[in-house]
Amino acid sequence: MRKPVVAVVGRPNVGKSTLFNAIAGEQISIVKDTPGVTRDRIYADCTWLTHSFTLIDTGGIDPDSRDELLSQMREQAEIAIETADVIIFLTDVRDGLQDSDKRVADILRKSGKPVILTVNKVDDFKKLGNEVYEFYNLGMGDPIAVSASSRLGMGELLDEVCKNFPEETGDRTETDDRPHIAVVGKPNVGKSSIINKLLGENRVIVSDIAGTTRDAVDTVVVHDGTEYVFIDTAGLRRKSKIKEDIERYSIIRTVTAVDRSDIVVLVIDAAEGVSEQDAKIAGIAHEHGKGVIVAVNKWDKIEKTDKSTKEYTDKIRQTLSFMPYAEFIFISALTGQRLNKLFELIDMVRSSQTLRIQTGVLNEIITEATVMKQPPSDKGHRLKIFYATQVSVKPPTFVIFVNSRELMHFSYQRYIENQIRLTFGFRGTPIRFIIRERSEKEGE
After folding, report:
1. H-helix or E-strand containing 388?
2. How many CB atoms lie within 10 A of CB 374?
3. Kind of pairing, strands 43-48 and 51-57?
4. What are phi and psi of 172, to 5 degrees?
């Protein structure tokens, strides 16, 4: 089941980014060595009490503006509205109720989504309380007064947001154990064409105009008697002159599709090579702990030597160095070249994701690893690994008990990970480690 999506929407300069940061706080999952993923802060995985959700920051809506940038901001906000389960409609008490707020309210009413009317910059309710009541004129229920910069009113706002979450988000049930594969990538790299070819019919609309796939579409493909659910991620509605804008906001839909999936197929155009945007999209899959297959499409159009595949793979691995576990496949959606091999890779990655290692066997491998390469030390204290155990799958997650968490340097953790991978494979899936500290006596 995917997490609910909450979008912060409003006209420009009402404090949306400040509110976004106030809610996200330290909860934004920052993964070191993941280039570009957390830099834009378009979305954050958040928790409030027992609820987890994805928060989306949007550009300001200016319903009347003909300015290209503002019109794009409006379009991106509308995409966020379509994607969201709950909308925080942010206004500004200092500006008072504006005509543009009323127009934004009209747009939100048409969406049919739960809308939480929120009045920002209320630093002193005694002084500004009467100004808040003006927003009742929007006819959108009781306004919630907050100050995003001072973090006032956050609890009340988040309680109201969580009250409006759907009981079940998405159409996947607990018993649905079919592999769910999100097909992601930049616009116009051939995502829909790949699914069409796998399906054998044009179920998904394909066009040469980037961004013609408007909504994420689930397509069931049966291969050798097994059902696979492919999630085709949507581009934006129209081709934009502002390339950065399209790339920035296409991430919104990528996040929700990745969240619902088990495995992510990142499609790259062979002629264009791997870009910073590809790295951002791969980073989202990595952060969410998903299996990853890099599918290099349009490989039939590339002039090749006997070294082309290896050279191309090495180049991509260099850019995606934070995910050395990713699997690669070189395909052509046009000719169908190697597309059937994709199912073999999906099955292999799924097997890796769900692999469980017995505690005794795991500890033998780690003991051998520490003999081959002595653990790090500092000021006379050496790292001791007492024991390790696997606690979950998808992704495989291990708890390692040590005498000092500080001494478990990232490089040594990577070394342990490599030794585990050498023995058990875990191809195509990230591995997570939880380092827990215990005293010498506890560790014995």
Report:
1. strand 385-392
2. 10
3. antiparallel
4. -95, 125
Cα angle 34-38-39, degrees, rounded to a multiple of 5? 105
Residue extents of the structural domains in the chain: 5-163, 180-353, 359-443
Q: Which residue has the tokens 């062979």?
A: 270
**Class of CATH domain 359-443:** alpha beta
Residue pair 114/86 in contact (Cβ under 8 Å)? The answer is: yes
How confident is the prediction along the chain (444 residues), in pLDDT tens digits per residue? 568 889 998 888 888 888 988 898 754 433 333 333 333 456 778 889 889 898 887 766 766 666 665 666 566 667 777 778 999 999 999 999 999 899 889 889 888 899 999 999 998 877 887 889 999 999 999 999 999 988 899 999 999 999 999 875 444 555 678 899 999 988 788 888 888 888 775 444 444 444 434 445 678 888 888 888 888 775 433 344 444 455 555 667 788 788 889 999 999 999 888 888 888 889 989 989 999 999 999 998 888 888 888 999 999 999 999 999 999 999 999 888 899 899 999 999 999 999 999 999 999 999 999 999 999 988 888 999 999 999 999 999 999 999 999 999 999 999 999 999 999 999 999 999 999 998 766 555
Give Cβ neighbours of residue 228 (< 8 Å, ≥ 6 apart): 178, 179, 181, 220, 221, 222, 343, 346
Entry field: residues in the chain: 444
DSSP H helices in 328-395: 339-353, 359-372
Could you check whether 5-163 and 180-353 share the same CATH topology?
yes
Backbone angles phi, psi at 89, to 5 degrees: -95, 110
Q: Which residues pair with 437 in a beta bridge?
A: 402
Q: Are 272 and 188 in contact (CB under 8 A)?
A: no
CATH code, residues 180-353: 3.40.50.300
Structure tokens at 432: 């997570």
Token pair for 94 = 């200092």
**DSSP codes of every residue in 411-428:** HHHHHHHHHHHHHH--TT
Task: Give the right CATH number for 5-163 from 3.30.70.100, 3.40.50.150, 3.40.50.300, 2.40.50.220.
Answer: 3.40.50.300
Q: Are strands 226-232 and 217-223 parallel, antiparallel or unpaired?
A: antiparallel
Helix ranges (DSSP H) in 178-289: 191-199, 243-260, 276-287
**Please, are residues 385 and 375 in contact by the beta-carbon 8 Å criterion?**
yes
pTM of the predicted model over 0.85: no
Indicate the burial class of 71 (C-beta count within 10 angstroms; 0-12, 13-18, 19 or more).
middle
Q: Which residues neighbour 348 within 8 Å (Cβ) at sequence distance 6 or greater?
A: 327, 427, 428
